[in-house]
Design goal:
The protein is of the alpha+beta class and 190 residues long. It folds into 2 domains: 119 residues, no CATH class; 61 residues, no CATH class. Helix content is 43%, strand content 23%. The chain has a 3-stranded antiparallel β-sheet with strand order 1-3-2. Strands 5-6-7 form a 3-stranded antiparallel β-sheet, with no helix packed on it. Helix 1 packs antiparallel against helix 2, helix 2 packs across helix 3 and helix 2 packs antiparallel against helix 5. The protein starts with a strand and ends in a 6-residue tail after the last helix.
């Protein structure tokens, strides 16, 4: 399982300690939990959008095959995360189409030809290639294997999706926490 997580640490702790003194432990924790969850929703939306574009898939397929979900901060747990435990997305889900030379598909957003491959409609339209190994079913050297595209857990923590996570989290969290602290102290603390 791959997860990316937002937690409070470092320079945010003195501000949290000031908030605890001004608001009381319960209200300060509530303010930071609310800030984390608001930021977590924004981060989840942007990361889902970015990883889908990065992979050349739809957001629905990223959620479906990647088992992508947002885990909110609950109670006194000041941590929110985006988790993914899925596997590889089938090549057929990247606009695969049969040509004379093989199947043309566009994983990672770039169309390319997968030579000597074919689509089997009876097997869900999946893309296969002949391995040349022995097949017990036919008794000949014509075993096939399916082809797969990228995996959401691997793509989630690299390139544009990682950058989107870090950008949104660092831009949104401090201002959202400050806004909620100000709101809960009726403007007494900024």
């Amino acid at each position: 399982m791959t997860a990316i997580t937002i937690t409070f640490q470092g320079s945010g702790l003195p501000k949290f300690e000031d908030a605890v003194a001004a608001l009381g432990s319960t209200k300060a924790t509530r303010a930071y939990r609310m800030a984390l969850n608001t930021t977590g929703k924004k981060v989840y939306t942007e990361v889902k959008r970015t990883v889908a574009k990065q992979m050349g898939a739809t957001q629905a397929r990223v959620v479906k095959y990647g088992h992508l979900r947002r885990m909110p901060a609950l109670g006194s747990n000041l941590q929110t995360s985006i988790e993914s435990s899925g596997g590889y997305i089938p090549l057929k889900d990247f606009s695969g189409r049969q040509t004379r030379k093989g199947v043309s598909a566009s994983p990672w957003g770039k169309r390319r030809l997968f030579g000597s491959t074919f689509i089997v409609a009876k097997l869900g339209g999946q893309v296969f290639r002949n391995t040349g190994k022995f097949s017990e079913k036919s008794g000949r050297n014509n075993a096939i294997e399916s082809l797969w595209g990228p995996a959401v857990p691997k793509e989630l923590v690299k390139d544009q999706s990682k950058a989107a996570f870090e950008r949104i989290a660092t831009q949104t969290l401090p201002s959202e926490a400050a806004r909620l602290i100000k709101l809960l102290t009726s403007g007494a603390m900024t």
